[in-house]
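Example 4.3 (complexes with small molecules)
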Amino acid sequence: MAEPSRDPPSALSADFMSFSPGDTASRWLACADLQQEVYCHLAEYVPRILCQGGGMAEHREEQREEQREELALQLLLLAPLEWFLLGGEPAAGLALLQQGGGSAALCGHVFKVGEPTYSCRECAADPTCVLCMQCFLASAHRHHRYRMTTSGGGGFCDCGDAEAWKTGPSCQNHTPADQNRETEEDPVSLLPPAVEERSCSIFSIILQYAVDLLTWEQEDQLPAGLEPPQRSDSYYCMLFNDEVHTYEQVIYTLQKAVNCSQKEAVSFATTVDRDGRKSVRFGDHQFCEQAKAVIVRSTSRQSKPLRVQVMHSALVAHQCFALKALGWLGQIIQYSDGLRRILCQVGLRPGPEGENSSLVDRLMLNDSKMWKGARNVYHQLLMNSLLMDRKFKKLFAIRFAKNYERLQSDFIRDDHDRQFSITDLSVQIFTVPSLARMLMVEENLMMTIIRTFVDQLRHRDAQGRFQFDRYTAQQAFKFGRVQSLIGDLKYVLISPPPQWSQQLRTKFLDGFETFLDLLRCMQGMDPVVRQVGQHIEMEPEWEAAFTLQMKLTHIITMMQEWCSTDEHVLIEAYKKCLSALSQCQGGLPDGEQPISLSLAGHTVDTFRYQVSQEKVSIHLPMCRLLAGLHVLLSRTEVASRLPEQLPLGELSPHLLIELPLRCLVLCAQVHAGMWRRNGFSLINQIYYYHNVKCRVEMFDKDLAMLQVGASMMDPNHFLMIVLSRFELFHTFSAADLRRRYREANKDLAQQNTLIEEMLHLIIMVVGERYVPGVGQVEPLDEVRREILHQLCIRPMAHSELVKALPENGNKETGLERVIDSVASFRKPGVTGRGLYELRPEWSKRFDLYFHHYSRADQSKAEEAQRKLRRQNGEDTALPPPRPPPLCPLFGSLVNLLQCDTLLALEGAVLQWAVEPSGGGWTESMLQRVLHLVAMALLEEQQQLESSGADEDVSFTFSTRITRPGEAPSTSGSVLALLESLQNAPHLEVHKDMITWILKMVGNIKTTRERTSGSSVSVSHGRRPEESVRDKDKAERKRKAEMARLRREKVMAQMSEMQKHFINENKELFQQSMEDLEAAATATEHSPPSLEPTCVAHICVGPMRVGGAERRQLVTCILCQEEQEVRGHGRAMVLAAFIQRSTVLSKNRSRGIPDPERLDPLFMHPDLSVGVHTASCGHIMHATCWQRYFEAVQQKEQRRQQRLRGHTSYDVENGEFLCPLCECLSNTVIPLLPHACSPDRSVEHPCLETWLKRTNQQAAALDSTHRKQSHGAAQQVEPAVPDRFRVGFDLQNSFSSGVGEMINTFSMSAYKVGLKVNPNEQDPRVPVLSWSTCAYTLQSTERLLMDEKKPLFGSLPCRQDDCLSSLTRFSSACWTAAPIRTVQNHFIRLLSVLVPIPDSQLEDAPCILDVDMFHLLVYSVLSYSSLHSLDQSGRRSVDSAHLHLLHLVTVAHLVQVLLTFTTGELSMDQDGEESEEEQLTCQLYGRLRDHLGRCLPDISCGWRLWRCVRASVLPFLRTAALFFHYMNSASPPADLLGTGPGQWEALCSYLSLPSNLLLLYQNQRTLLEPLIHRWCCHPGVGQVLHGGGVLVRFPRESNRLIDLPEDYSILINQASSFTCPRSGGDKSRAPTLCLVCGCMLCSQSYCCQTEVEGEDVGACTAHTFTCGAGIGLFLRVRESQVLFVAGKTKGCFYPPPYLDDYGETDPGLKRGNPLHLCSERYQKIERLWRQHGIAEVIGHAQEANQTLVAIDWQHL
Ligand SMILES: [Zn+2]
Ligand SMILES: [Zn+2]
Ligand SMILES: [Zn+2]
Ligand SMILES: [Zn+2]
Ligand SMILES: [Zn+2]
Ligand SMILES: [Zn+2]
Ligand SMILES: [Zn+2]
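Answer. The structure with zinc ion bound is encoded below.
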């Protein structure tokens, strides 16, 4: 496998030395054939520089190689080009050019992947106009309403482009200094003529060279003139990218084919994916062919094989250089507009083959054959050159348009994403309105695009309509790609022209006609037939058709907008559309049976057609476009001004309404359940038909078409046709038919629904007037009405409203322009989001039958509105609001309301309603009829009000309803029926509405009588009386209602509060429940301040108070039995969760210690890793818990057999969920009894005596232990103190049950804390128990301190219980370990402070390497093992604790002073030094005596003391917590608050002098030698000289990193972040660690690392070092917080960034500017500091099972 020999690097270096680019350039200047000369040079050097094999060398080696290559390339290849171009030294020449030529006033910054882009929603011409961050910040748009997105790569900043911005086109940096330069001056004229000439020739040679090579298709040959001097047998096996094979397949194949490691395979695959190709093998021809054969063979099985080529190394080298050369061209032209233009000229100059032979054409036409990397480079060059030059942008646009069809076909066949295709440049060209219009006129662009699109979809049915249901996968793929053409069309149409030229009109209308051809292929596609009998077997395909419809929605709307700006165009388009529709519908009535319908004295001819039996289609784009144009005729008043030009006479309204009506009937029948057997496909279609994404050009236009038709027909005829299509004609046409029909037809419910739907349709046809052109309204009125009706349902967030409104082509809804007029904004709290609430005055505009309500929306809104009215003490009638007047063209619509047919319908329904039951009618039916009657009355009233005094109002509904009905039921007039129904008991709900109607009738009557001036007195006599009665009744009713409401409100409030409390504040709720539980069950839980106040509160030492023999009664949550906590009783346990923690770490770089070798006995003051214990506070019998846990285990085993999924907890690691609160737990803490009260009878030794005796005891034990283990006698037997029994056997004070639980918890702490397997023999077992106790206390104290809460009494019960049990457990856990082990620990701990005589202990650490609180806890807790041997009867354990406290405190004082730094400068305090300050100074002086110049000279006692006090305070507070819990000593009142006197109270509680220095001062003789020994420890000097980790005091609390206020700053940071592993690549998912601020390359193969034998993603790996398994991250591109625990667990959490509407934006989909919400960030921080992350993950995973399935370890 030897690689062929290559030039040793030194050979190249020699060329380096002797080569002169200047000389080469001069030679070129003089030569006759420049191209030959340059080619010759390239042929010689390119293969030598760029043909270095490559690939598998060591990473560092490879990097050095790359650098060398880069240098050689620069010097030998590019430098001569520059010398030649500039005719001298390049740097100077370029600077000169830059000065002389000036550069473009365009920014043109090309976006990187993930870079933030900004678009102004007020000023951008369209949403594709964007600014880069620098330009945005320097622009006026910063203060406008803007949208922020991240770029997908490609595209450039539009700053400086006057067409892209309505205002403020340039930022401050790109504002042209000289306005006159704007004029079209040829920039080439500014170049020196020699440079012009040389650049022309060298650019054409280099561009030609690059184009030749990039489009070269032979593998073994080179273009003429480039053959290398000596041809070698060296080849590359080149692997190309495709979108078919997965990463895994490629990696697997490569490992097999080229025999590389997985890592290398991953790296190859990554490069192939990024650059589009990568050589995977270098060697002779045969060697490479072998690899190719293997790759092709092993990937050809499932699909098309991977593309592999064996290419000659010289060819590959030239291709590499071609790319470099293009990059060079791109850079060089940045220096001068003149050079840029020359390059443009060269690029577009026609070649020898005429049409399409320019170099740019050749590149474009070969685009789909090139690999990704090559495409990217030349696209970038096009953007830097042609698209930045005003003149050539136009010429290029023409080339692009001419080649459009070919380029698109290439793209559609290609399998690369569009962003890698030349077709993607359309956005840069077509969105420039002037270019787009020019292309439309000159190149017929609109028609070209539409025609290309239609040509690509060839699959049609017999009628020529699109047929998607038989699509193969390949056709579906093609369909997916061809949709981008619609995007291009959208760019072209996005802004309607301000002026029309005659040519533009012609070309637009040509395009419009082609578009009609497209619609013709859609009209009637995917027809459905009602399935009877059997359910359909296969769901028909429907999505493709709807995708097409959805994509075209904006196009159709834009076409209409264009039409609306020019009368001529509108009229012509209308004619074309009408004639196209007539052609389509030509055969509509043929073959159908003509019938004649009669009702209410009217007759109409139509034909027989039943939706329920024949084909019907939802796709009617042609009808709908016509409807839209018709409304435009009305809106622009063209119809009234130029009626003679319109073919209105040719319209047959019957035919116009036919298809839309069928579609609406189909919806009604589906609602009525008549189409159940047609499956979900139909239901989905109906859903999208009404959906906000489609309805504008579907449902809305069908409704408009019915309005068009109805306004042109006799209203009776219209209604009869509607009845007939609803298949309801016979129900209403004969008097008693319905009764008979009812008996025959079991589907009465179905029929009732149809009647409801039909009545609703009539309401909408007459009532929906908010489309400009139908009613006299403005576009914003329409938006306002939509918002109003959404908010009538409930208050909504901004994003919900946006979703409910249709967007226009610019992604705007108009929401922001009207929202403040209809709604008020309510800000969000720490959770939830901001909401808009409807302003009360607008609820009067509520329309129950608003056409965009779904049935569910409608009933919610109705309920909400009735409730609101009741609350306001109003009646609950919901009459229709006053509608806006209709436009003249639609004016006759109102006659529907009073026509005979409708009156007959109304009469019939009211007649049915007289009978209470029978199912012949429904309440909704009645409600709709009442609504229709009310609409008619409103109409009449409005007409009366607006008419002049003597005008006759033709709308006479109120008179008509007094006439008895004509048919079918002759029982009475509509009015009479209403009056009789008013008091019907079964219509109580509708009473208010009927009353409203009758009142209205009365009012109208009065008005009419008043205007007609007669019989005024008649009504006058009746009305006052009636109104008094009415008023009275209303008042009574109102009062009763108010009372009921108050009751209801109180009830609702209570249940709401309860619910809210439980849901929103789950944790608190648990606590309060526990409070109740605890209060009921345990007598000990009286607040800690109940001791009589006269007794001094002391928690440690012989004087301590408390630890009384209080009985502790607790209840098991599993069996509900009560139990007393006793050492010998049944064991009780507390569910608990242990985890490693780095929350307090002052040193995150320490790395993970080797668990086998780690000695945890001395905690370093950097607290880099600790073990934290938390509990939910729920108590169980140990036996009950064991049984529960076994059940969980069994269940889990069964589950794993069934499906191998994870759960939210890991049973194998002992995890379970608390049976009561489901809190994640992994062990239990045993409950132990309180400590005994101190024995006050014994005499307590002073420090000196105790120290001496303890020393002796320790020494004796040490020697005995050594003797036992070594078996050999020692030289000197230390004297064993009096009555100290070295071999004394202890009797265990715990029952076996309790002992077992002590063991359980010890083992958990050991296992989790060290990440090892359980091992009871390990001497480190008890240390870990003490450690978790000390660490948990320490972190609790930090939290209390930082949240400024009192030390005692402010912890929630669950935490208080946890700490108390944990501490008491720790003080007893030594009993479970071998006593010798514990004694040894004590001796080693003591030796830090006090020398143990004759001991042969390994060196104790120096006091700068020990955390004093941990030392205190460990030594106090291990002391018992020593003390228990003392049989002298002097049970003075308490004084020992006190002495230990004193000693450690002094050590801590020394520790603080040793690490004191003068870093912070502050004013010195004036005046007398206090006693403390003096003593501190003295002590510091002593330390300096010992250590000399290691310590700075500080004479200011005030500063020293201030530091000491601040540093020792946390230690004292933590010690107070520790002794409080250990000895059950109640705290003094001062410590239950945060007032002054904390320090003194603390000292006295700890039995310390409040002047701490006295501890040292009073025992100087005893302590002085100890201090001397501490200072002289070699470690001290080492640390102080920087030889270790120096921790200074006070230790500051850790916080999460500071985040910027503006989210885009983060995005920008992330976009410039490159993957640390793959050499300068952009990271796909940059993720920020919130703990340390590290940016990571997440969710990517490149940054996977092996952790504990498994490949994990960057986040998980980082979590192990930074957070000991717990991680908090911000995924910057997603705007999402990620919590990770271990390898398998994680969840997402709402980010702390909100938009102005109080909402987060996960995935940055909406693009509103985001700002930091510090409250929410604090909440996350608190969660972390409370060690609550794992618990949050547990709850999230339990609530959402899909979270469990995510591969968290790969993030
Ligand atoms: Zn810019
Ligand atoms: Zn700019
Ligand atoms: Zn703006
Ligand atoms: Zn129990
Ligand atoms: Zn619990
Ligand atoms: Zn970190
Ligand atoms: Zn990476």
